[in-house]
Amino acid sequence: xxxxxxxxxxxxxxxxxxxxxxxxxxxxxxxxxxxxxxxxxxxxxxxxxxxxxxxxxxxxxxxxxxxxxxxxxxxxxxxxxxxxxxxxxxxxxxxxxxxxxxxxxxxxxxxxxxxxxxxxxxxxxxxxxxxxxxxxxxxxxxxxxxxxxxxxxxxxxxxxxxxxxxxxxxxxxxxxxxxxxxxx
Length: 184
Description:
The chain has two domains: 19-51 and 133-182, 3-Layer(aba) Sandwich (Rossmann fold), CATH 3.40.50.1820; 53-131, no CATH class. The chain has nine helices and four strands, in the order H-E-H-E-H-H-H-H-H-H-E-H-E. It has helices at 2-9, 25-36, 53-67, 72-91, 95-103, 111-121, 124-131, 135-139, 158-171; strands at 20-23, 43-46, 145-150, 177-182. It has a four-stranded parallel beta sheet with strand order 1-2-3-4, with helices on one face. Helix 3 (53-67) runs antiparallel to helix 4, helix 3 (53-67) packs across helix 7 (124-131) and helix 5 packs antiparallel against helix 6. The radius of gyration is 19 Å and the shape is globular. It starts with a helix and ends with a strand.
């Protein structure tokens, strides 16, 4: 937002033509900002999320684990572990309780591995991202929006996110949007 504000006030720059471009997490933030600032001229989302972080991370882990050659059983075990983590994050409101419950999950490995995982999973950013659904912000974006994702992206899977982005924009009445998957 600060960059947009700065550019919009510079001599020689037409403030009505300044927009936001965000990649991945930036593709989450750009629609959030545009939804509450109608003066933003456009949004470009590069591999931006269209579904809640929990869904993205489950799909991401499965895609990466599969691409690394893991078995279906290993993928299922990883997914089950992540689902336990996300359930705790949804159910508990205090960091203390989250840390207690996450630390009690069996099979996470050494004490150091458990401590590192618990620290990451209980961080404010992780908790926010896991539970944030971008659809409500996307339904409020009124400016033109371009959402692009790569067919082979394993971090933000295009087939999961692009349809959700398009659906949210349509639901909100944004008729000036393009949702595009770039082929391999």
